[in-house]
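Weekly sync, protein design subgroup
Attendees: M.S., D.O., the rotation student, P.L. (late)

Item 1: inverse folding check
M.S. brought a backbone from last month's batch and wanted to see whether the design step gives back something sensible before we order anything. D.O. pointed out we never logged the input encoding, so this time it goes straight into the notes. Structure tokens as presented (431 positions):
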């Protein structure tokens, strides 16, 4: 960096006064140049206050002054680089997103937003300063997520392997009360005999699924070792079961009918009469459809809202179907071709504003226009259902564990690359 650019940067924040008054007074000072940005002494002062306060609240000792200064300066340099990356990507946090984040922070601390504000005041932090710090952290987080996520690759085999390990750990404490029906099939049975026994097995399963009595059916049809006991195997952990039973049981709950499945001695049917120690996950899925209008240079927010109001009125008057209008007007190409249909999903998959609207909306009712980060929407919930997602929950947990591991690794690598590729000049008092 030449002398002129150096003087320009360090002199940006100097207050010039008339020559007849006192000499110029520096309001702030640049302590590091980071590409085309700077880190200011006031940034260090603010960070020192935060670090000191956190250490006091956690009863931790701070490192020596020189070490602390270096750590804080390096952290501010890394934050500045991430903010520059966010600017390059066009990432901005608007006031509604900021307010939602602050409300979440207050909720996590079990206080109101007003109480959080008072707490900041007690610690000598101006509310406007706190809001901008939260906005800064959100911006950095968005930039980091955008750049790091694309570096992460998780193979389906990795998820399956970890999910199996998690299942094995969970299943060690689970006990099942099982009933069993075995239809015998000799090794030398003809093709017709095998097909006949197979069809009989399917008929027994249909009977059981329509409230058939498993004990009566076992005593009448089963050739298994517990036939005279109504097929009752009692309470068993998976490691105590015959292997052919254990191989069929994953996360099924009470009342599940398993089979028919084949072994060397014939066809088998299992019924889980009861379970102890199994954690099952049931979720509500919704089937929804929407129409999205995105504001643009030629279409304002009010214009998008007005257009959706007109479409809503047409639907409610029966002049046009929701599906036809979605195909014609929706700016969401993925769902528009399907009449706006978003398919079956839990509402957690949606952005917060869309999730809140769908959760509160009765089935068959078209919402009023509302805005999310994607634009303006109207939405209709066409159906809801309860779904056993135990297997999916285990796989989701496995995926999250793998993602978090890889995210932390890749985030560190990305930051190192960002720092290594940057122009950074640390300025001393006599620079």
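Designed sequence read out in the meeting:
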């Amino acid at each position: 960096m030449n002398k002129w650019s150096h003087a320009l940067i360090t002199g940006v924040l100097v207050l010039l006064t008339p020559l007849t008054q006192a000499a110029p007074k520096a309001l702030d000072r640049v302590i590091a140049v980071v590409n085309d940005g700077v880190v200011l002494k006031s940034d260090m002062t603010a960070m020192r206050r935060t670090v000191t306060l956190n250490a006091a609240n956690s009863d931790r000792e701070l490192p020596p002054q020189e070490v602390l200064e270096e750590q804080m300066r390096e952290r501010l340099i890394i934050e500045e680089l991430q903010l520059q990356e966010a600017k390059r990507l066009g990432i901005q946090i608007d006031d509604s997103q900021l307010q939602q984040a602050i409300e979440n922070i207050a909720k996590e601390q079990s206080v109101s937003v007003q109480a959080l504000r008072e707490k900041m005041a007690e610690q000598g932090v101006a509310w406007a300063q706190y809001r901008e710090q939260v906005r800064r952290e959100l911006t950095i987080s968005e930039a980091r997520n955008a750049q790091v996520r694309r570096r992460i690759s998780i193979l389906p085999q990795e998820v399956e392997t970890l999910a199996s390990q998690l299942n094995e750990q969970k299943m060690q404490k689970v006990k099942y009360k099982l009933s069993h029906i075995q239809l015998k099939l000799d090794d030398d049975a003809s093709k017709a005999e095998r097909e006949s026994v197979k069809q009989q097995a399917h008929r027994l399963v249909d009977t059981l699924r329509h409230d058939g009595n498993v004990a009566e059916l076992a005593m009448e049809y089963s050739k298994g070792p517990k036939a005279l006991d109504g097929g009752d195997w009692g309470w068993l952990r998976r490691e105590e079961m015959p292997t052919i039973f254990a191989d069929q049981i994953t996360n099924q709950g009470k009342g599940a009918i398993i089979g028919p499945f084949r072994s060397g001695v014939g066809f088998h049917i299992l019924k889980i009469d009861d379970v102890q120690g199994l954690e099952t996950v049931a979720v509500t899925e919704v089937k929804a459809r929407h129409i999205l209008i995105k504001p643009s240079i030629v279409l304002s927010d009010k214009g998008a809202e007005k257009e959706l109001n007109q479409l809503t009125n047409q639907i409610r008057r029966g002049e046009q179907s929701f599906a036809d209008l979605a195909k014609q007007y929706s700016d969401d190409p993925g769902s528009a071709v399907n009449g706006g249909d978003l398919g079956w999903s839990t509402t957690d998959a949606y952005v917060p504003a869309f999730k809140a609207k769908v959760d509160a909306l009765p089935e068959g009712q078209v919402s009023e226009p509302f805005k999310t980060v994607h634009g303006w929407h109207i939405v209709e919930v066409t159906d809801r259902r309860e779904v056993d997602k135990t297997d999916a929950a285990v796989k989701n947990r496995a995926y999250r564990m793998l993602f978090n591991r890889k995210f932390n690794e890749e985030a560190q690598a990305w930051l190192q690359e960002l720092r290594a590729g940057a122009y950074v000049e640390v300025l001393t008092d006599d620079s």
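Discussion: The CA atoms of residues 399 and 405 lie 10 Å apart. Confidence is low (pLDDT under 50) at residues 1-25.
Action: P.L. to compare against the previous round before Friday.
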